[in-house]
Amino acid sequence: MIKIAPSILAADLLKIKQEVLSVVEAGADYLHIDIMDGHYVSNITFGSNIVKSIRPITNITLDVHLMISPVKQYVESFVKAGANIVSFHPEADSSPEKIIEEIKSLGCKCGIAVHPKIEIKDIEKYISLVDLIIVMTVVPGLGGQNFMENQLTKISTLNELRAKEGLEFEIEIDGGINYKTSKLCVDKGADVLVAGSYIYNSPESDYKKLINSLR
Ligand code: DX5
Ligand code: ZN
Questions:
Q1: Which of 67, 98, 161, 173 has the fewest CB atoms within 10 Å around its CB?
Q2: Rounded CA gap, 91 and 112, in Å?
Q3: Angle between helices 96-105 and 72-81 (to 10 degrees)
Q4: What's the confidence (pLDDT) of residue 5?
Q5: In this structure, which residue's CA is closest to atom 1 in ligand 1?
Q6: Using an 8 Å Cβ cutoff, are 165 and 186 in contact?
């Protein structure tokens, strides 16, 4: 079954505990936590403290998406705070292989995120090393943007490479996911869908209904 990862970027921060527990209760598989540094992307969100605060209230997989540059010196703090998966953009640091190795050596799963302007051939050398690949279907930095359909072929390419090379990474799609775009991604071979505004900013307040509509 397709996994759903609500992104707390769109949650009400005054009620963060309730916002997290409600999506867990509604059947979310991962909780997606967007870390922005005002440098790799223009916005600033949270540091590792948010992971540390959420960790004790739930066992859900904490899926941390680092949109920061440089990356290396921050990785350990996110793992120690309780992240289960740490993903980063390989073009944001000079030694992606070393970062992947470090995340894995700390006992955490590792992912890489593919910016819309980055081609699969540019990240192909990492695919056998990671547990997750995030295909970005918006320019990272902001929630609530429109889904970029021209990124869909990356999902098929990754799906084919995975089968051809006998790899097991998950393919996660991030940006502009709703009940329509989710189907396009699943048809191409997506395993995990991130959804921020579709879940947290919807007029529908039944998170279970929203999550199931993506499935
Ligand atoms: C965008 C973030 C996304 C964001 C998605 O830079 O990486 O995870 O939360 O938000 P929606 O689902 O609203 O596009
Ligand atoms: Zn994200």
A1: 98
A2: 10
A3: 20
A4: 99
A5: 140
A6: no
For ion ligand 2, residues whose CB falls within 5 Å:
34, 65, 174
Atom of ligand 1 nearest to the CA of 196: 12
Is the alpha carbon torsion for 1, 184, 127, 157 positive or negative?
A: positive
Q: Is 145 in the pocket of ligand 1 (CB under 6 A)?
A: yes
The pLDDT value given to residue 94 = 96
Domain boundaries, the chain: 3-214
Q: Which CATH superfamily is domain 3-214 in?
A: Aldolase class I (3.20.20.70)
pLDDT in tens, 169-202: 999 999 999 999 999 999 999 999 999 999 999 9
pLDDT in tens, 2-20: 999 999 999 999 999 999 9
